[in-house]
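Hey all, quick one. A colleague (J.T.) asked me to put the 2-acetamido-2-deoxy-beta-D-glucopyranose job into the tracker so the inputs and the structure tokens live in one place instead of scattered across chat threads. No bug as far as I know, just bookkeeping. Sequence used:
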Amino acid sequence: MHHFGMMRLLRFIGLAGLAVANPVTFDVDSVDSTSAAWPNGPLVTSGRWIHDAAGSNVTYAGANWPGAADTMLPEGLQFQSIDAIVDKIKGIGMNAVRLTYAIQMIDEIYDNGGKDVTIEKALTQALGVTNGPKVLAQIIKNNPSFSASTTRLQVFDAVAASLNKAHIYVHLDNHISKAEWCCSTTDGNAWWGDTDFDTTKWARGLSYMATHGKAWPNLVSMSLRNEPRSPDDKSAAATASKKTYNWQGWYKFVRQGADAIHQANPDVLIFLSGLGYDTDLSAVTKGSALSPGNDRFSLSDFSGYSNKIVLELHNYQNSASSCSSLESGLTNAGFSAMSSGSGLQIPVVMTEFGFMMDASTYKGVYATCLAKFLPNLHAGWTIWVLSGSYYIRSGKQDFEETWGLLNHDWSAWRNPTYVKEQLEPMIKATLSA
Ligand SMILES: *[C@@H]1O[C@H](CO)[C@@H](O)[C@H](O)[C@H]1NC(C)=O
């Protein structure tokens, strides 16, 4: 079985547990005057809604664009120009991208006296002395504004700028500390204090990116950390870290990270992810004691920015056989906070879900269920994953992503029928008031 699917399956088994419709064409000149101030931020929350500065609802309908693996560069640029990829996203009416990065990128900037590493060096380090320069040449051929001396952050800047031109929001996601394919409970990046998850460097990295991202007009939200999970390897660091793997520990680290982002950049929304690979926020949304302590989650603990906090959940229950039980599980995990009866009213965004882009999987219970559940709730989402392939993943170069929306060379949709029959209607339904 596909390694990716297996990991996602294993992780699930291991658990107990607006909106103004965007113009579908990418023609900025034709955008009418009401969207002249796009993105009309900063965004804030109002109960379960996200509002722009005019008080209009904003809901994300978008995709994940990974940039947190070994090269620490947004994927796909050896095959296409940034603008061509953005055209694809815009062409189906998406309005948001979850752009991932690794803390290692910022650590290396500090180690290098404040200067970012060139893409030439990053690619050679990740892909070797033969393939690194080859991929560099391909990236430059497709993106002629780049050169060997372009830095990694300049590539992130160019991605954000192209998305901005297309009126697509950027949600910047700290995916992992050590730059590599994510995630497992034994990868050293599972929980604060784990072997490769230094809490101080993490907070420094969040702060750095929050500051850096001020130059991106479309940076409207940031996450604290992708998929917190139990640190299960046998290292001393993992063993010590595991002692705080609980809601009490979660609340301490989450507040630390949220403060770091807010102090650096008071404009962005801050997304909190839950336990068990970000599949459980029930203690937060139900207002239970954050065990083993007695504190309860309260927006007032985010002093001065309680209207900046959003929750995010992931779901990979790909083998679900009942939509109603999938829905009730999601409601229980945290989506209850989107309904009027909830004590805590807060936006909940599904920042990851996804499945094999073959001919039939999208017709199954899991995909069809989420394609209705999320728009019905007016919940935002970003599907995993845009990538048709990766520069390198788990040691294998030019890795084929069978879950990718795009094909191997990012030139076309991998499954155009899915995009037409299910994804585009889901985007439209999500973005319609
Ligand atoms: C947001 O959308 C909901 C559901 O369509 C609607 O009831 C509410 O009035 C909207 N809020 C604003 C400010 O447009």
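Adding what we noticed when we looked at it: Residues 6-119+151-430 form a domain with the TIM Barrel fold (CATH 3.20.20.80). The chain has 13 helices and twelve strands.
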